[in-house]
UniProtKB/TrEMBL annotation:
<dbReference type="InterPro" id="IPR014314">
    <property type="entry name" value="Succ_DH_cytb556"/>
</dbReference>
<feature type="transmembrane region" description="Helical">
    <location>
        <begin position="166"/>
        <end position="184"/>
    </location>
</feature>
<keyword id="KW-0349">Heme</keyword>
<dbReference type="GO" id="GO:0005739">
    <property type="term" value="C:mitochondrion"/>
</dbReference>
<keyword id="KW-1133">Transmembrane helix</keyword>
<dbReference type="GO" id="GO:0046872">
    <property type="term" value="F:metal ion binding"/>
</dbReference>
<dbReference type="InterPro" id="IPR018495">
    <property type="entry name" value="Succ_DH_cyt_bsu_CS"/>
</dbReference>
<dbReference type="GO" id="GO:0006099">
    <property type="term" value="P:tricarboxylic acid cycle"/>
</dbReference>
<dbReference type="Pfam" id="PF01127">
    <property type="entry name" value="Sdh_cyt"/>
</dbReference>
<dbReference type="GO" id="GO:0006121">
    <property type="term" value="P:mitochondrial electron transport, succinate to ubiquinone"/>
</dbReference>
<keyword id="KW-0408">Iron</keyword>
<protein>
    <submittedName>
        <fullName>Similar to Succinate dehydrogenase cytochrome B subunit, mitochondrial acc. no. O74882</fullName>
    </submittedName>
</protein>
<keyword id="KW-0812">Transmembrane</keyword>
<dbReference type="GO" id="GO:0016020">
    <property type="term" value="C:membrane"/>
</dbReference>
<keyword id="KW-0472">Membrane</keyword>
<dbReference type="GO" id="GO:0009055">
    <property type="term" value="F:electron transfer activity"/>
</dbReference>
<dbReference type="InterPro" id="IPR000701">
    <property type="entry name" value="SuccDH_FuR_B_TM-su"/>
</dbReference>
């Protein structure tokens, strides 16, 4: 069985006359070979007209169609975005640290564990708490909200009330985890 593509124009906004003929959206239908064969309409254009056609078509496209599928009223939208942001931040910082750790030895800069512990131990208490909090907060949020996402992936906890309760639970767990990590030693 052979197939071919048939096209037909859709409703379009009014454009300049050469462009209005050229700007044709296509709907493709797969049909059998029993339908009489017709060639799709072709239009010869100059490179300038083709460029103007491309610009006109791009103006009709949505800027970010993937964002239109989300309902902004859902409470999980920002939680999902922040989980991704914290994950990228933590992995980026980890990569930077390991690159620095592996290259400083060849440059003669001391960045071993004993040196880092001595430098960190010599900092004022407020700076230590701030540094620990800046590292622990994204880690704890990413960890607990990741578990929340795994629960959602199983199909549970998706009602509005459950989303709100799990958000509060994640917040409490993050604060407790950050407090525990910052207060530890």
């Amino acid at each position: 069985m052979s197939f071919r593509i048939i096209t037909r124009p859709l409703c379009l906004p009014k454009l300049a006359s050469p462009l209005s003929k050229a700007l044709v959206s296509q709907i493709r239908f797969a049909t059998s070979s029993s339908v009489p064969k017709r060639s799709p309409p072709l239009l010869k254009t100059t490179s300038t007209e083709a460029r103007q056609l491309l610009i006109a078509q791009r103006k009709l496209r949505p800027i970010a169609p993937h964002l239109t599928v989300y309902d902004s009223g859902q409470t999980w939208f920002s939680a999902s975005a922040w989980t991704r942001i914290t994950g990228v931040t933590l992995s980026g910082l980890t990569y930077l640290f390991f690159i620095a750790y592996s290259t400083t030895s060849t440059l003669g800069i001391p960045l071993d564990s004993a040196t880092m512990a001595a430098v960190f131990g010599g900092l004022p208490t407020a700076v230590k708490v701030g540094v620990k909090t800046l590292v622990a907060a994204p880690f704890a949020y990413h960890f607990w909200n990741g578990i929340r996402h795994l629960v959602w992936d199983s199909g549970r906890g998706l009602s509005k009330a459950q989303l709100g309760r799990s958000g509060v639970l994640v917040g409490v767990l993050v604060v407790g985890t950050v407090g525990g990590l910052v207060g530890w030693a």
